[in-house]
Amino acid sequence: MVVKKLTLKNFRNYEEETFVFDEGLNVLAGKNAQGKTNCAEAVFYLCTGASLRIRHDRQLIRIGADCARISAVAEGRGGTVFLEAAVYENRRELFVNGNKVGRSVDFLGNMKSVFFSPGELRLIQDGPDERRRFLNLSISQTSREYASALLRFRRILDQRNDLLKEKDRGLVEETLPIWDEQFALYAARIACKRRDYLGELSKGAAEAHAFLTDGAEQLALSSDTKYRGDEEAVAAKLVRELAASRERDLRLGFTTVGPHRDDIDIRINGVDARGFSSQGQARTAALSMKLAEVALFTRLSGEPPVLILDDVMSELDLPRRKKLLARIRGLQCILTCTHAERVLYGTECRRIRIHGGKIIE
Q1: Residue 343 pLDDT more than 70?
Q2: What is the DSSP string of 275-332?
Q3: Which of 43, 87, 88, 114 is the most buried (most CB within 10 A)?
């Protein structure tokens, strides 16, 4: 799938601009803080309904405006799709081909993208929350079933945690087993899907990492969960674990077992990268995971996603820049940088210069 046109209105520092993209490499160039990343962020938002940079959607609204609008025309195997998001102070509206969708899960996957920036180092170096967020966003773009299960699971988890804080012990003992059954059902779907997805992602990440490092380093990804078997077996195991941890959960006031506590084990040459990798190693490992994500999306959906590379070239040495450019050939890529001439090496591309939230021809 490729983005043909993107229109921003009162989004971040843009008053109103329309971008026209080629099917190959599109370079957004300009000085820092001019709006390059904002444009890239808008594309990702239309793919996932979420931003990797903010916690509250209202931060997307241009100062002085009451609503931000993002819209795009994309083309893929299924034809042309028109996506739009209108963000207000306390709500948002999502549209697919002019029809308002009531659930965010119905907005997911109409256009797919993979986003990489220097900030993705947190995928390797920060806590497990970042790695779970990565898996959730990645899997949800290719599986609405997973996205729906995740939404239901989070609601059940919140309700179970509220019950654990209830002072009426009789009420807790009576109703907790009911919540545990529901919790285990959806938790098992999530755990099994993550396990299988990560198994496929790890193969691509290992291959991409070997390519970027000329075989000097080996990257290995694996789930640290102990769940085995099909969903039914995993659900039964979770019910037992919930029962065994009940007293601890009551004492702490929250649920201590389940997929909301899982992590990804990331190793470079056998060493835990989460705590012992250098900046350069972490950057290459994260980039390898993203390139693997591109390949997996392509295999699962039959067409490549839009690849967004935000200020990545400045963080890579010359050999790895060349390797990355060779690797993404044939994909639609939106790449941001401050000095296009220094990073492209004569690569054929569409160049768009941005200054102060405006396209400078």
Answers
A1: no
A2: HH--HHHHHHHHHHHHHHHHHHHHHHHSSPPEEEEES-GGGS-HHHHHHHHHHTTTS-
A3: 114
Task: Answer yes or no: same fold for 1-112+305-361 and 120-298.
Answer: no
Tell me what pLDDT residue 29 has.
Answer: 93
Beta 79-87 vs 92-96: how paired, if at all? Answer: antiparallel
pLDDT tens for 69-112 read 999 999 999 899 999 999 999 999 999 999 999 889 999 989 99
- Give me the CATH code for the 1-112+305-361 domain, please: 3.40.50.300
Q: Say if CB 357 and CB 13 are below 8 A apart.
A: yes
d(CA 130, CA 247): 29
Q: pLDDT tens digits, residue range 36-65?
A: 999 999 999 999 999 888 888 999 999 999
User: Which residue is associated with the tokens 């520092």?
Assistant: 13
Quote the CA–CA distance of 32 and 23 in Å, as a whole number: 25
Whether the pLDDT of residue 118 is over 90: the answer is no
Rounded Cα–Cα distance for residues 254 and 14 (Å): 43
DSSP states of 43-73 as a string? Answer: HHHHHHS--SS-SSGGGGBPTT-S-EEEEEE
Residue 174, φ and ψ in degrees, nearest 5: -80, -40
Instruction: Quote the CA–CA distance of 247 and 231 in Å, as a whole number.
Output: 26
Per-residue pLDDT tens over the stretch 145-181: 999 999 999 999 999 999 999 999 889 989 999 999 9
Which CATH architecture best describes the domain 120-298? Up-down Bundle (1.20)
Q: Which residues of 200-235 are buried (b: 16+ CB within 10 A; e: fewer)?
A: ebbebbbebbebbbeeebebebebebebeeebeebb
Contact (Cβ atoms closer than 8 angstroms) between residue 356 and residue 35: yes
Whether the per-residue pLDDT at 114 is higher than 90: the answer is yes
pTM, rounded to two decimals:
0.94
